[in-house]
Amino acid sequence: MINKKNILYFLAYTLLVIGISSWCTTMWIEKFVLSGGQQEMLVDKGEEGAANSPVRDENAIIEVFSYACHFCQQSSNDVQALEANMPAGKKVVYLHINDGSGNWLSGSARVFATLNVMGIEKQHRAALYDAVINQQLNTSDIQQFNAWLTKNGINVETYRQAEASAEVADALDYMKAVTAYYKINGTPAFIIGKRWVAYQDSEFGEFSKKMIGLLASQDKP
Question: What stretches pass through the bilayer (predicted)?
Answer without folding.
Answer: 7-29
